[in-house]
Amino acid sequence: MLKEESRTRTPVTRRQFLGIAWAASLAGLFFQAGWALLRFFQPRASSGAFGAFGGRVNAGDPAEFKVGSVRHILAGRFYVSHIEGAGLLALYQRCTHLGCTVPWRQDEGIFHCPCHSSLFNTAGEVLGGPAPRPLDVFAIEVVDGKVVVDTSRPIERSRFDPSQGTPV
């Protein structure tokens, strides 16, 4: 039989317990930080999906866009402007000066950049301010009676041309 002396354990001291607790806490902290860093660099599943920015966005029924109206499509980060003689134009909401978000000012009838006061008309043309060119546009097509905007590639332009619009 085994001796009783070989089975006895020495108790953990307070100093050893605190050392183990600190080591476990630091290991947990580094694990969480590493996990968060990996999740930060992982692409989002909605990127490029239908209905989200970076993909094809359903903007609505063509009848909803009256001539002279501007409507903000929040999910796609663009405005749909219905211009007489040109049709629908999907204007990217980013200013061509420094990339600020440009809101539509219904009371003024223009897009007014709050950062450096660039002004754009309903066709996205520069009316004033430091913006070097008109607002970028996205391709529009009418599919099954719905206005669908492809937000995967903003189209830079030097000026407005009625052929940039989509007739409805």
User: Which second-level CATH architecture of the largest domain applies?
Assistant: 3-layer Sandwich
Proportion of beta-strand residues? 25-35%
The whole-angstrom Rg is 29 Å
Total helical segments: 1
Element-level helix/strand string: HEEEEEEEEEE
Helix content: 10-25%
Structural class: alpha+beta
Number of domains: 2
Rounded mean pLDDT is: 86
Distance between termini? 96 Å
Biggest sheet: strands, sense, closure?
6 strands, antiparallel
- Low-confidence sequence ranges: none
Trace the largest sheet across and list its strands: 1-10-9-4-3-2
In short:
This protein is of the alpha+beta class and 168 residues long.
Topology summary:
Elements: H1 14-41, E1 56-60, E2 70-73, E3 78-83, E4 87-92, E5 104-105, E6 110-112, E7 119-120, E8 126-128, E9 137-143, E10 146-155
Antiparallel strand pairs: 1-10, 2-3, 3-4, 4-9, 5-6, 6-7, 7-8, 9-10
What does this structure look like?
It contains 1 helix and 10 strands. It has 168 residues and is an alpha+beta fold. It folds into 2 domains: 30 residues; 109 residues, Rieske Iron-sulfur Protein. The strands form 2 sheets. Strands 1-10-9-4-3-2 form a 6-stranded antiparallel sheet, with no helix packed on it. Strand 5 and strand 6 form a beta hairpin.
